């Protein structure tokens, strides 16, 4: 699958079991990207194009948008269904989140933070 934004210079290749991340340094552009994706998740128009084998797909039916990694309901029916369909094992997801938390903790320590709580 490919995910493309009208003004983004490169495509995002989506593969089962792979978590993609995009770094956007411009806050206004980041807001525009997320806002458009959220609008399309709600069935409205936006600048994102999702395709599989060059055939367009409906964004709202094929993408889950996580905006808060610390508040993900892993028991949400659509998430479970998509995990099963794509053979994504919960342990892989948990390992990914643990890796992100460890990186966040290391960054916090390097920044001089002595205590860290969730």
Q: How does this model look, in words?
A:
The chain is an alpha+beta fold and 118 residues long. Helices cover 42% and strands 12% of the residues. It has a four-stranded antiparallel beta sheet with strand order 2-1-3-4. The radius of gyration is 16 Å and the shape is globular. The N and C termini lie far apart (34 Å). The relative contact order is 0.12. The model has no long low-confidence stretch (mean pLDDT 79).
SS element count, helices:
4
What's the helical proportion of residues?
Answer: 40-55%
What is the helix/strand order? EEHEEHHH
- Helix-strand makeup class: alpha+beta
Q: How many angstroms does the end-to-end distance come to?
A: 34 Å
Notable characteristics:
four-stranded antiparallel sheet; about 120 residues; alpha+beta; 4 strands
Quick structural summary:
By secondary structure, the protein is an alpha+beta fold. Helices cover 42% and strands 12% of the residues.
Map the helices and strands:
Elements: E1 2-5, E2 12-13, H1 27-41, E3 48-52, E4 55-57, H2 59-62, H3 77-85, H4 90-110
């Amino acid at each position: 699958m490919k995910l493309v934004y009208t003004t983004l210079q490169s495509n995002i290749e989506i593969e089962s079991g792979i978590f993609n991340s995009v770094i956007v340094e411009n806050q206004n552009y980041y807001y525009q990207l997320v806002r458009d994706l959220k609008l399309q998740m709600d069935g409205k128009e936006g600048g994102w194009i999702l395709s599989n084998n060059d055939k367009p797909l409906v964004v709202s039916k094929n993408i889950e948008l996580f905006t808060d990694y610390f508040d993900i309901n892993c028991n949400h029916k659509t998430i479970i269904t998509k995990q099963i369909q794509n053979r994504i094992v919960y342990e892989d997801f948990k390992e990914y989140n643990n890796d992100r938390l460890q990186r966040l903790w290391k960054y916090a320590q390097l920044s001089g933070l002595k205590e860290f709580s969730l």
